[in-house]
Amino acid sequence: MNNPPLLTQDGRTLAEVRADFPMLQASENERPLIYFNSGATSLKPESVLQAMTEYYRSYGVNVARGVDAIGYKATNAFESVRAQTAHFIGARQAHEIVFTRNTTEALNLIAYSYGDAHVEAGDEIVVSETEHHANYVPWQELAKRRRAKLIVVKPDSNGTVTPALLEAALSPRTKIVALFHVSNVLGASNDLKALAALAHTAGAVLVADGAQGIVHSRPAVADWDVDFYAFSAHKLCGPTGLGLLYGKQTLLAEMAPWQFGGEMIDVVDVFDSTFAEAPQRFEAGTMAIAEVIGWGEAMRYIDRIGYDFIHTQNLRLATRLVEGLQRLDTVEIYNPHNAANAVVAYNIKGVHPHDAAGIYDREGISIRAGHHCNQPTMRFLGVQSTLRASLSFYNTPEEVDHFLEVSTKAGDFLDVLF
Amino acid sequence: MTSSSDQSNLFRQIIMDHYKNPRNKGLASDPRGYMTVHLKNPSCGDDLTVQLLVEGEVIREIRQSGEGCSICCASASMMSELLESSTISEATEVIRNFNLMVKAEPFDEEAIGDALSLQGVSHLPQRVKCATLGWQATERGLERIRQNRLAGEDSTGLSQGGHIDADVEKEENYEA
Ligand SMILES: Cc1ncc(COP(=O)(O)O)c(C=O)c1O
Question: Can you state the percent helix, strand and coil of chain B, rounding each to 5?
């Protein structure tokens, strides 16, 4: 119970970290929000908001157009985040990073650009049974477009796609393997390095959905040898509206663009055009410039916090939460062994998850109820929907204790009406 | 005059009763002649089917079946009990009053029977979509029957039935 005080990389306490987040500050007459829904999107620290405001207030012009000094400043700020992102996730080169709208768009980009060019009738695409819709539906659609076969791997009881399970699903016709890094409902982790090696022996590429993975540990995409790694800035203290796609330089270089217009062209002739090199060829139109700049600050912020702090905090909090729920015989937990990734999927017996969520909401606790954009996982668990508490490094043991107390009252769900 | 806590206890009992013992639950084994309306709320997973058997001006039968929270299920049960055997225009009036209630606008308390117990939803905008799902299904079904009749599709007076399958737009629940 008495853990030694934990400090961030830059020597600060949890209380000081919490002060970074405007949404965690109590407003007048109101308790501060207890936010247990970081799996949906994380809260944003003040410094990220400031970086974006600073751009808008002092150098808010478009990038890569023209030759003026202020345009240069904006372009420089924007492009430097590409290099920073590459470094952050262990990529070798800045131009292996493509800016997109979110993880979903990054995965669609791969499905349309790489997928349409490489998957033929009768080929196979491998996904798992517990993918987020973002890493499931684009492959379903690709399979339909190309008359390919979608092979759906059932994870082990913990929710993990082990190398042995993937190996059994591979064939000489496998062209794409698309798997989560960390799953958004069960919190299971996949060993991407081992899975990439297997995919490569079958002659396929490995596409990793890193939307949750990036939140819990620092990826090493080059070392792991994954071919693509997609994630969203908004899950890791960054702004909404920005996705990041890592693609191996050799793959991106030969991929065709999938959206057309300004910024992505080389020469536009009357009836034909040529296109810019990757990554610009995948970035049609004005990009989310302020968001890219905000994401740059989010990465600096995470470096100041440190993944060690994030990991230890998450593990302590989620362990406390899981152990607390296990003491309640009204609660059914679906993933008791994945505390390290701070996602707990559960239900209160006999109480519909929306009814239960209503009680948490009334007590100022934000959690998620529903299928979590992951109907495949609901089928895997054999339930319609669940509650999901997802924690982050800015949560506290006191919040967990309050959450546990409220969990005992969830049966009084009609109270919300009166 | 009852005290407000007496009233809230009564309301709780009514809601729990409809939730635990839903009225008109289960779909007709032979759906011919029924207007079947299947509505889903993809954002939360509520999923409800309502069947209407309409003869002339009268709703002879309402069946309902689905999956959702207590508010969604209890409300659909209340709706089915309240509107069965009423005429189309009576039903339309009841639905109108229910919709006013959940929007916290003035409404006729006498008109909506047990559904008055759900009045508290008007303070919970995020749950209005749960409470209205069954009512919306009936409203859409009746509207379709009316259109079919205008199109002259059923001169017999017995509705020919039909099928509607829709996701309820999320936007509907947000204030402008
Ligand atoms: C595992 C996983 N994949 C993909 C996504 C999609 O992310 P976005 O909505 O930012 O595209 C999410 C976010 O909900 C996720 O948790």
Answer: 50, 20, 30
Prediction ipTM score: 0.82
CB burial string A141-159: b at 16+ within 10 A, e below = ebbeebebbbbbbebeeeb
Q: What domains lie within chain A, and their CATH numbers?
A: 14-44+307-417 (3.90.1150.10), 49-303 (3.40.640.10)
Tens of pLDDT, residues B127-161: 999 999 999 999 999 999 999 988 876 655 566 78
* CB contact residues (below 8 A), chain A span 300-359, against chain B: 352-355, 358
Residues A317-356 pLDDT 10s = 999 999 999 999 999 999 999 999 999 999 999 999 999 9
Mutate: best of B6, B19, B44, B133, partner A, most A CBs <10 A: B44
For residue A221, pLDDT beyond 80: yes
Q: Which fold has domain B4-168?
A: Sufe protein. Chain: A (3.90.1010)
The answer to whether the beta carbons of residues A229 and A221 sit under 8 Å apart is yes
Where do the structural domains in chain B lie, given as residue ranges?
A: 4-168
Specify whether the backbone of B161 is left (phi greater than 0), alpha (psi in -120 to 50) or beta.
left
Contact A417 B67 (CB under 8 A): no
HEC letters along chain A: CCCCCCCCCCCCCHHHHHCCCHHHCCCCCCCCCEECECCCCCCCCHHHHHHHHHHHHHCCCCCCCCCCHHHHHHHHHHHHHHHHHHHHCCCCCHHHEEEECCHHHHHHHHHHHHHHHHCCCCCEEEEECCCCHHHCHHHHHHHHHHCCEEEEECCCCCCCCCHHHHHHHCCCCEEEEEEECECCCCCCECCHHHHHHHHHHCCCEEEEECCCHHHHCCCCHHHHCCCEEEEEHHHCCCCCCCEEEEECHHHHHHCCCCCCCCCCEEEECCCCEEECCCCHHHCCCCCCHHHHHHHHHHHHHHHHHCHHHHHHHHHHHHHHHHHHHHCCCCEEECCCCCHHHCEEEEEECCCCHHHHHHHHHHCCEECEEECCCCHHHHHHHCCCCEEEEECCCCCCHHHHHHHHHHHCCHHHHHHHHC
Of A280, A284, A230, residue with least CA distance to A106 = A230
Taking residue A216's Cβ as centre, other Cβ atoms within 10 Å add up to 22
Q: Hey, whose CA ends up nearest to atom 16 of ligand 1?
A: A184
- Please tell me which residue in A7, A276, A340, A373 is annotated as part of the active site: A373
pLDDT tops 50 at residue B173: no
pTM: 0.91
Q: Which residue of B has its CA nearest to A370?
A: B44
Q: What burial letters (b/e) apply to A21-37, b meaning 16+ CB within 10 Å?
A: beebeeeeeeeebbbbb
